[in-house]
Known about the structure:
The complex is a heterotrimer.
Chain A: H1 3-18, H2 24-44, H3 49-54, H4 68-71, E1 82-93, E2 99-108, E3 131-132, E4 141-142, E5 162-168, H5 201-208, E6 219-226, E7 229-234, E8 237-242, E9 247-251, H6 252-260, H7 263-267, E10 275-276, E11 283-287, E12 291-296, E13 299-304, H8 305-313, E14 324-331, E15 334-339, E16 342-347, E17 350-355, H9 358-365, H10 367-370, E18 378-380, E19 383-388, E20 391-396, E21 400-405, H11 406-414, E22 430-431, E23 437-441, E24 444-448, E25 456-460
Antiparallel strand pairs in A: 1-2, 2-5, 3-4, 6-7, 7-8, 8-9, 10-11, 11-12, 12-13, 14-15, 15-16, 16-17, 18-19, 19-20, 20-21, 22-23, 23-24, 24-25
Helix pairs in contact in A: 1-2
Chain B: H1 9-14, E1 22-27, E2 38-43, H2 56-59, E3 67-74, E4 110-118, E5 121-129, H3 135-146, E6 149-150, E7 157-158
Antiparallel strand pairs in B: 1-2, 2-3, 3-5, 4-5, 6-7
Chain C: H1 2-36, H2 51-54, E1 71-74, E2 80-83, E3 90-95, H3 104-111, E4 120-126, H4 134-141, E5 147-149, H5 151-156, E6 164-169, E7 174-179, H6 184-196, H7 215-224
Parallel strand pairs in C: 3-4, 4-5
Antiparallel strand pairs in C: 1-2, 3-6, 6-7
Amino acid sequence: MTFTTKLATGVGNALEHRFSRRSLLGRAAVVGAAVTVGGLDFVLRPTPAYAAVCGPGASCGDGWTAMCCTINAGVNQCPPGSFAGGWWKADGASLCGGQARYYIDCQGECTHCGCNGSPFCTDTCWNCERRCASGTCDERRVCWNVFRYGQCNQQVGCSGPVLCRMISCVPPWKFESCTTDAATDDNTTDHTAPCLSPWSPLQSSYASIGGAGSVLGAEVGAEYAVAGGTAQHTTAGRLYRSSAGADRWVLNAVLTTYVAHGEVDALGLPTTNTTKTADGHYAYNDFAENFSIYVGPSGSWLLGGPIRTLWVQLGRENAAVGYPSGPDAAVGAGNWQVFVHGVIASSTAGTLEILAPVAAGWLNAGAANVGYPTAAAAVNGGVTTQTCTAGLLCASSATGSHAVYGDIYAAWQADGGVSGSYGLPTADVAVNGGGGTYQTFQEGRIDAAPSRSHPQRHVVPPRR
Amino acid sequence: MIPEPRADPLAVRALRPPPGWSARVGWRAAGDGEQSHRVLHAATIPMTGSRSDYGSDIAARLGVDDSLVVLLEFGASAVGTALFAPRGLPVPQVTQFDPNMLQRTLPGQSGFQRFFTVDGRAFCLYVVLGSHARRARTVPRVHALLSRVDVADGTLTLRGPA
Amino acid sequence: MLVAAVVVLAVVVALLVLLVTGLLRSHADILRALHELGASLDDDGTAAPSRTARQLPPTFTGAAGRTAAAVVGSDPLGSPVATSVDGGRDTLLVFLSSGCTTCQPFWGALRGGEAGPADTNVLVVTRDPDEESTARIADLAGDRVPVVMSTQAWEDYEIPGSPHVVLVDGGTGTVRGEGAAGTWPQVLDLVGQARGDRAHARSWLPDPVTARDNADRIDAELAAHGIGDGHASLYPGRP
């Protein structure tokens, strides 16, 4: 008789003698004592630390097979050189939210000999070495148990031992070459390892999209906390869950750039899953701190701040500038980013597109010289102009795209600018022999001294 | 909800383990999308009610003179595959038992596993001996058990001696 | 006239009081008797064993030597199970019910993994699923207690009630002894004694319950006192 039972019975007997024999109070005392003491026993029952983390049967001598993630760099799938040999499930598993938990045995392979009528080759042919897993409390056996459940890859009739066990809350036939022939072993329900995540809302989300069979692939390591939520590494990306309960994934194509820019801490949690654009050429994610990452033929680029805001307002890739094609760059009191068909620049003067044909002139001149745009481009008589904080962008089919800025711009403007005697710029600003700068126009050239305070005019007089 | 295994009336009537054996024939517990097939458990110790199709709970309780025999049926898609290519119920020989040929390798035990096809039906035979050292003594008892296995007429049971 | 009516009413009331008192007393006696027999009013059967059951002296009596039948039935999950009790080690059949209060210590001991008799298979036998709750039996048995649900076995072994244990000799396939005990340790003692002295397996300490209903034992005791078939004292009303 256990201590709990003795105590409960003793309390019941004492009350039976004190009160009427079958009184409600007596019976309640027995039940109450049993519940109370049993509850304490349950709460206070010593549990080995290993059992708490890795579940029962975690030592090598217990005879079970180790989890794949324990021996496969945290990856919860069959390691290279092994294949799914069969599966079983444990029903009502708390580690899968009370649903069935699936175990897929990964079989080692035979290197140079057959099986001679047996489904297994001899150990001299195995492509793995018998050992005990190490490094965590999952010290179960590796490449040891010569056994096969038999529902997967039945075209393979000869194999080595079970290398390790892959764990899934999603039926294995949905992502492996396995049949649906049921097999159960509830004795393994709580077998786990530190590299496997306990059940959580994020794990539920992962299972709901297909687990290892989803676009995210197999899990790598256990779930962990990030700012404002949790995250789970997978072979094809990461799955994030915000504390508000939104689950979003970032696939590796986008993830590389996301991580390079500081991931959650810098960009915030993803607010979309990695999604293909309508034309199918790019994949992207949006992030909580007003960032997006687009990946496609033009590269993998981060958009953020006012530039992203304007780009989104203009219809993202449907904006005139198209997809991003370069990084965000900051010069002076503003920043800008190159797109396939132009630039978006942002400064105290505003955030504006710089489109072809003036974009080339702006890029050649640089924000440091011509400054940031202060208004949208204007087209007048085949001439496109766009004012900037330190100059003007000017383009026509006859003269090309050039920026006029600095002292030259001041002199040119004083002369009337586009409508003045010099006409349109025909080249970018260049360095002259005296260390100053000059720029040619349709009707002449303007030189500026090095000090930029005394521009010398009319080296080539205008025709008008 | 965990579906309960179905009983097989024919197996109930025909289940006749040889002396010293306890046997159970059931349908494997199948969840959504899964196919249930028959499984036979026979052991020289009484059966517990837990769900373990390869009998890990029974194997863990085997004494040194005990044996466990498990016969699982697989779906029709397994027929004709390389894994199930061998034909006929295998009869394990003493030399074929391996201390590592076990679902769970427990000290002292040994096992035997084969996949095979009989009458167009795919099966797996799995045998666990409580003591590898005493296999010469226990394997004949396994043979006695296997001699009663009957898969005729789509069933799976142990019939009485002819 | 009024006085007479009052007297009559008083008498009627007194009679009614007497009747109700009698009914209450009768009800109490029935409850007490049920309790002493181990019947529980608890729905879940979790109450402690009754005083009477706990004080039952352990006994092994009955049809030792008779051929033991295989136990055929189903497990708590519904699968057919057959257990032969010959040709192997000894088998201790433990006949239990889910609702009997005095069975609870047995379920607890077995589920808790308390050791059984050495070199003996222990098999719990309950009645068929149509007479027992399979879910309740599955809960009580857990995953460590072998259970066969077989009313046929109860009939084959002529089980008078639960708990009841039958020890089967694996070598001969015959019953070595049977009886009742209040606790699992008492059962272990009985098995130990049965193995130590087979001759006494049928006549250990008298069991007030089973002995009362055991015709063989009654016949034997009467014969020992010179009372056999047709003895006049057996028929007091006959001239």
